[in-house]
Description:
Order of helices and strands: HHHHHHEHHHHE
Helix content: 55-70%
Number of helices: 10
Distance between the termini: 18 Å
Amino acid sequence: MTESVRQISENDQLRADIYQLIAALLRRSPTAELLDFLAQLEVDTDQDNDMTKAWLALKLAAGQFTPEQLEDEYFALFIGVGCGEILPYGSWFVTGSLMDKPLALLRQDLLQLGFARQEDVKEPEDHVAALCEVMGTLILEAPSFRQLAFYQRHMGDWIARFCDKLAEAPSAAFYATVAQLAKAFFALEAVEFEQLSLNIPVNCPGNDDIQPETEGTVRVN
């Protein structure tokens, strides 16, 4: 039987691209090529909203920092000597502890969804970059109900707080604009999912915890 080709809307492609961009910026400090790409973004200024403002701020910041400066900023924010200023892990934001129950639940869901951790990746799967990578893949490959279930179960209740903490971090300069973009985008994502009129199937990963209202992983075929 021939499988039908899934049609990806322009909006979904844009959403997936933004997830992957945020993931790239949070996985490691940006390369010169990525900074050049951001500095040359064409931003539609006809729309005066939070996303437009965030894109303009990120574009401006990308032209003001060198890769070497951002290596230092990234180190201070996310690595540090012993610990960075921000712990970019879902478990930490949900429970205040690392490697806690949320990570175990995430691993179960990733296994059910067909994702496996890359051998060369040392970070836990609940790193915010890994979660964004998974969401970007789900938007392009999975039904809407699986996107909704994964987002609400593993990101929805803490990602805005992560953005706020990053924006307020003492060393955040360029990354304050990354936080600005991420917060504006995730606010739109919350609206996107709220508008979905879905009956979550019983066998949907995370269905039991859904309430109405990861370069870290690879897809296993």
